[in-house]
Design brief:
Blueprint lengths: L1 E11 L7 E12 L3 E5 L6 H5 L10 E6 L2 E2 L5 H8 L1 E4 L12 H11 L4 H14 L4 H4 L9 H13 L5 E5 L7 H18 L2 E5 L3 H7 L2 E6 L2 E6 L1 H7 L1 H6 L6 H11 L11 H15 L1
Parallel strand pairs: 3-8, 3-9, 6-7, 7-8
Antiparallel strand pairs: 1-2, 1-4, 4-5, 9-10
Helix pairs in contact: 3-4, 3-6, 4-6
Length: 286
């Protein structure tokens, strides 16, 4: 049960003067139930990579399969495999188009041919999950909402499809700190309660350090690093620098403290965990 890339290359505008190779010899497996963070500088291949995971892009070479089914094959098996993968694009509120919030979220489930009762259940459940009350918001226009609320509606529309794999491309981009925190908490809650596989594309090292249990670093269309965040941040600083990204600020702080003689145990990646580790280290010194 996984998404598998086998020898995948992708070339934009092949055969033209603007030809550009965006993915180079990608071999990758994302197993069901993982929470994977994908990072890298602009143009590193992050978005191109994830757009292969539900068949939006077709490899120039190689194959991408979901649970053993080639996404680019013809027929119902491939179509069903693509439906297992939901994707929330960057600034997903730009995809809203229906007159009411309910109708916008119901659009996808209805296209699956589900009964009206099942559509109702999914819309209500998705609204509840993103923290929007059905009675208060269902009949409102999505274009009367705040930016953060619009983002929630867009995410609810994908959640209502109940994908087994959920891809989010910079879901917190452009939100204020509170809205960003709320969106990320909801994504983590979805992962924990439903065991949905989550693939999170982000520029924020703090975000992926807090949420992901596996980190993939893209650089120049290739996978530069792949492993648990603690291992990537502990042993991969040089490769991260080459990829144009840095370790979370917490790791930088702890490294500076270590140089000054205060070494903490483990590799805490969040401010809360780092605070506990620093206090514990100070306690041992006393």
């Amino acid at each position: 049960m996984s998404i598998v890339f086998t020898d995948v290359n992708y070339v934009y505008m092949a055969g033209t003067p603007f030809e550009q190779t965006a993915l180079k010899n990608i071999n990758l497996e994302i197993k069901q139930g993982e929470f994977v963070g994908i990072i890298g500088h602009t143009g590193s291949g992050k978005s191109t990579l994830v757009q292969h995971m539900n068949g939006i892009l077709k490899p120039s070479q190689g194959t991408v399969s979901v649970e053993g089914i080639d996404l680019n094959a013809k027929g119902m098996p491939a179509r069903n495999a693509r439906r297992k993968v939901g994707m929330v694009f960057q600034y997903p509120e730009h995809q809203l188009f229906e007159e009411t919030i309910y109708e916008d979220i119901a659009f996808g489930p209805r296209n699956l041919g589900l009964s009206s009762e099942e559509v109702e259940r999914r819309v209500t459940s998705a609204l509840q999950f993103v923290g929007l009350d059905r009675e208060a918001f269902g009949k409102r226009s999505p274009f009367q909402l705040s930016g953060g609320q619009m983002r929630r509606v867009a995410i609810a529309g994908v959640i209502a499809l109940e994908p087994e794999y959920l891809i989010l491309d910079e879901p917190s981009a452009g939100l204020d700190p509170r809205g960003r925190e709320e969106i990320l908490e909801q994504i983590l809650e979805l992962h924990k309660t439903t065991e949905t596989t989550v693939i999170l594309v982000s520029h924020s090292m703090e975000e992926v350090a807090k949420l992901a249990d596996r980190l993939i670093v893209m650089n120049d269309g290739m996978i530069g690093l792949d492993g648990p965040p603690q291992e990537v941040f502990r042993h991969g600083r040089e490769k991260l620098a080459v990829a144009g990204v840095d370790v979370p600020s917490v790791c930088t702080l702890l490294a500076e403290l270590s140089e000054r003689g205060l070494t903490v145990e483990g590799m805490p990646l969040t401010p809360e965990a780092a605070t506990d580790a620093i206090l514990a280290a100070r306690g041992r010194k006393r």
